Amino acid sequence: DIRMTQSPSSLSASVGDRVTITCRASQGISNYLAWFQQMPGKVPKLLIYAASTLQSGVPSRFSGSGSGTDFTLTISSLQPEDVATYYCQKYNSAPFSFGPGTKVDLK
Amino acid sequence: QVQLVESGGGVVQPGRSLRLSCAASGFTFSSFTMHWVRQTPGKGLEWVAVISYDGSNRYSADSVKGRFTISRDNSENTLFLQMNSLRAEDTAVYYCARPNTSGWSQPPVLWGQGTLVTVSS
């Protein structure tokens, strides 16, 4: 099975900072990669699918890139409401594994 | 109103069984692949199982294979997760989730609120 990893596991940044999270698949998954945001105590929310397509209603400061095995989620200007844990998920085929998550908080 | 509502969670002893349900409303349930995803309190998301729109294809994570079975009743707009031989490590909030469009290879966009399963003696 394909294994998903993320780095870093956590980060602290200031409001307005550019934040980058990396997700890596152990084998190529084309662009079948989604990013989720989970705020404390809340249900996961789909941010990006097909590696770079923004889900409707998601602020444009979020963007995704990558293909194959290496992917990136970028928050161009961190806002207080972006404090959350971010997960990547592969969905090219089962098992639809998630990465271990990256916790983002404010410095 | 488009929504998913899980039920059936609770406290169960190790080795026992439990069946979770997910009631769908506001959309054509029979058109969508459905997933179960779980989250141990304070930990990350773990994908558990998937079933195709008509129930003909199913797949489970290795961690639950042979113990958990995903199924659906399209006439009742309900998704199920039969969990047997439960272990302490199965303790988690269990979510059902649906992709935005029909098809197997789509990420989940609609999530229920989750139901907590606690496996403890």
> Helix- and strand-based class of chain A?
mainly beta
The residue ranges of chain B in which pLDDT falls below 50 over 5 or more consecutive positions are none
Whole-number mean pLDDT of chain A: 97
Q: Mind describing the biggest β-sheet of chain A?
A: 6 strands, mixed
**Count of distinct strands of chain B:** 11
Shape of chain A: globular
Order of helices and strands of chain A: EEEEEEEEEE
Strand content of chain B: over 45%
State the low-pLDDT regions of chain A, or none: none
Helices and strands of chain B, in order, run as EEEEEEEEEEE
Q: What is the share of helical residues of chain A?
A: under 10%
Largest sheet of chain B: 7 strands, mixed
Number of alpha- plus pi-helical segments of chain B: 0
Shape of chain B: globular
Strand percent estimate of chain A: over 45%
Helical content of chain B (DSSP H or I, runs of 4+):
under 10%
In terms of quaternary structure, what is this? heterodimer
DSSP summary: helix tally of chain A: 0
Quote the distance from N terminus to C terminus of chain B: 39 Å
